[in-house]
Write a structure and sequence with these properties.
Layout: H1 20-37, H2 43-55, H3 58-90, H4 93-104, E1 113-119, H5 124-135, E2 142-148, H6 154-166, E3 170-174, H7 180-189, E4 196-199, E5 205-206, H8 210-220, E6 226-234, E7 240-244, H9 251-254, E8 264-267, H10 268-274, H11 285-296, E9 300-311, H12 326-342, E10 347-351, E11 359-363, E12 371-377, H13 381-394, E13 400-406, H14 412-424, E14 429-433, H15 440-450, E15 455-459, E16 463-465, H16 470-478, E17 483-491, E18 497-499, E19 502-504, E20 510-512, E21 532-533, E22 541-545, H17 546-551, H18 564-574, E23 578-589, H19 602-624
Parallel strand pairs: 1-2, 1-4, 2-3, 6-9, 12-13, 12-15, 13-14, 17-23
Antiparallel strand pairs: 4-8, 5-9, 6-7, 6-8, 10-11, 15-22, 16-23, 17-18, 19-20, 21-23
Organism: Flavipsychrobacter stenotrophus
Keywords: Transferase
GO molecular function, one term: glycosyltransferase activity
Length: about 650
């Protein structure tokens, strides 16, 4: 029933770009042109017209999609090469010196950074390169704290002593016995005297401007206790690849994987308060530290720049093989379950199958309540029957009511269906007449006025339930005090994705990410299969506490057809609540089948323009700066691609 503009087309307009408005306009003009020239005597034009007609069929869409995938593979390789050159240019110290040297003296806050590096038997070459990346920092106020964990290669300690003798900012401690990485990291921490701690591995590299960028951030946001940056990977050839452009602080992302990664900077007093690294979490000791740190502070900053190169080699977790350090995944699971216990949150962390480094949280429902499932509809009895039957037959959570909103239906089979469900399920099923012209926001608010539940579940009439625990899982997140709207993975009948979260700025307003990707794919850094915070989720299936719905005054009725769900989510976000995408709940979505395709007549197009302009007028700052979408990523694709034009 309801749709966001970005989710309005399934295949043709979303193959390569979510800028659907421009695509629609251009396509309309092109088809009109073809119709004018496509006369019987013009066989070439007729062939073009026939191809367009074929491309708009399901087989045609599949063909175009396959061709597009091949083009995208070629584009990916070009983007990878372009990224490698781009980051090399930006890590060229001769370029950086001219850009940054003159700015350092103007900074009023100039702390000392203690760069903590646990060392154990790395490649001597890699170790030297790591140390040199610190020495060549443009910001000079640092100390390098190196602790060797009794490396068997005697050359390691010789290299450490060599550098310590050359630069008095380099401190070294040599452990007499091997204690593994947590104990060794704590030994390095004991050397630290700076105001901020920087965590670094013994074979990775800092970019030359790394510390300067952190100092600049600290001068802007001195309250931040914990700061992280973007990162990439570097192979043995020195080729930079796999940049991880991260969101701003996203607590649910953090519970599904250590998305902060590298490089991490913390105030020393916070590290001291935490007691450093805990023994028994080796391999994920940094993840454990971050989970504990984020329980003590919400002053968390993010620098959307690549400031750290993570070395790829056969013994690194960054290596393609997931078996490089299997104990790290065991330790991460332990750290997550500990975090749940500390937070008094009943639940359990589990591995995500075939997703190394990915975890899911199964929360217990501790605040059960009645769920009001609100479904707006007009006619389409067969479609609605499928939705209702799947809810009633499959739902394991039994404390719910179904509120059907009849928006001017006139088909006899619809009224027969309502009579049947009223007779057979009158204890949970109620139908109310909404006799006003279609206005999705007004329908949702009307449904709220009839709801008697503690939770509202806004559901399209073209949804089909797949598994029985869907309400239980959604409620397990919606019950949390910090959670706003809870969205799920919506699938087309062919098991490709219709919705897996919404990103602002795509297509000029907002778009669904990973549309048309098969559900078996992981997506960018496991986004498809992982719990994520997004600025918005789709209104086709949203659960929210009724109290929160009321707190933000429900839906904005000036947004009659589009963007109203995103507007609702942004109101929650602006109040400090985190909207969340739950990938383990999957529903089939037949894509607003009851209202058909939009923009095919003048009236619909004009309404779209009205909604579009109202939405942009309210939320332009979020549209231009989605906190959960990195500014280095493209707003012209929906799969988290690097913006090649920024390179």
């Amino acid at each position: 029933m309801q749709r966001s503009f970005a989710s309005s087309t399934k295949a043709f307009f979303s193959l390569s770009s979510p800028k659907i408005r421009e695509k629609v306009r251009l396509t309309k003009r092109f088809i009109n042109f073809i119709n004018k020239i496509g006369t019987p005597e013009n066989s070439k034009s007729q062939n073009i017209l026939n191809f367009i007609k074929f491309a708009l069929t399901k087989p045609g869409m599949k063909l175009v999609l396959e061709k597009s995938k091949k083009l995208l593979l070629s584009s990916d390789k070009q983007t990878e090469r372009a990224y490698n050159q781009w980051i090399k240019d930006r890590t060229d110290i001769n370029i950086l010196q001219g850009q940054y040297r003159s700015n350092i003296d103007s900074l009023s806050i100039q702390p000392v950074f203690s760069i903590v590096v646990p060392v154990y038997n790395p490649s001597v070459k890699y170790l030297r390169e790591a140390i040199e990346s610190v020495i060549t920092q443009l910001y000079p106020k640092w100390e390098l704290c190196l602790a060797d964990d009794n490396s068997p290669n005697p050359e390691i300690q010789q290299v450490l002593k060599e550098y310590a003798d050359k630069d008095n900012r380099i401190k070294v401690t040599l452990r007499k016995t091997n204690g593994h990485i947590s104990a060794n990291s704590n030994s390095a921490l004991e050397l630290a005297t700076g105001e901020y701690i920087v965590f670094m591995d013994h074979d990775d590299l800092l970019t030359a401007n790394c510390l300067f960028e952190f100092v600049k951030h600290i001068n802007q946001y001195p309250q931040d206790d914990l700061i992280y940056s973007d990162e990439d990977k570097m192979d043995d050839r020195g080729f930079y690849t796999s940049p991880h452009f991260k969101p701003n602080w996203a607590p649910d992302n953090m519970l599904s994987r250590n998305y902060m990664g590298h490089v991490i900077v913390m105030k020393k007093n916070l590290v001291d308060q935490l007691g450093g690294f805990r023994l028994g979490y080796e391999g994920s000791q940094d993840y454990d530290l971050l989970l504990r740190a984020t329980e003590l502070t919400n002053h968390i900053g993010h620098i959307p720049k690549v400031l750290y190169h993570w070395r790829i080699h056969k013994l690194s977790v960054a290596a393609p093989s997931s078996d490089a350090k299997p104990y790290a995944y065991v330790a991460a699971l332990k750290a997550l379950n500990d975090a749940l216990a500390r937070r008094n949150t009943p639940g359990v962390a589990e591995y995500i199958t075939d997703t190394p480094g990915g975890y899911r949280i199964k929360y217990e429902v501790t605040k059960p309540g009645k769920v009001s499932i609100i479904i707006p509809t007009k006619n389409h009895a067969a479609l609605l029957d499928k939705a209702l039957r799947s809810i009633i037959d499959l739902t394991e959570y039994k404390n719910y009511e179904i509120i059907l909103l009849n928006n001017n239906s006139d088909a006899p089979d619809f009224f027969e269906l309502v009579a049947r469900y009223t007779k057979e399920h009158g204890d949970i099923f109620k139908c109310y007449d909404a006799t006003f012209p279609f206005n999705f926001s007004k329908l949702m608010n009307f449904g709220r006025s009839k709801a008697t539940g503690d939770y509202l579940l806004l559901l399209n009439n073209d949804i089909e339930v797949i598994h029985g625990d869907w309400i239980t899982q959604m409620m397990s997140f919606a019950q949390r005090d910090a959670t706003g709207a809870v969205g799920v993975k919506l699938l087309y009948p062919d098991d490709t994705i219709q919705h897996a979260g919404v990103v602002l700025g795509l297509g000029g307003a907002a778009a669904h990410v990973f549309a048309n990707v098969h559900k078996s794919e992981r997506g960018y850094f496991n986004y498809i299969k992982s719990l994520n915070n997004y600025s918005s989720v789709t209104g086709a299936s949203i659960m929210v506490r009724k109290a929160l719905f009321d707190e933000v005054d429900g839906f904005d009725e000036t947004l009659r057809v589009e963007y109203n769900d995103i507007d609702f989510c942004l109101k929650l976000l602006a109040k400090g609540y985190f909207n969340v995408y739950v990938p383990d709940v999957e529903l089939y979505h037949y894509e607003s089948a009851s209202r058909g395709q939009p923009y095919l007549n003048k009236q619909n197009w004009e309404q779209h323009e009205i909604d579009y302009n109202i939405f942009r007028g309210k939320w332009l700052n979020y549209i231009n700066n989605d906190p959960f979408y990195n500014p280095n990523l493209s707003v012209n694709t929906n799969d988290f691609q690097l913006d090649i034009h920024k390179i």
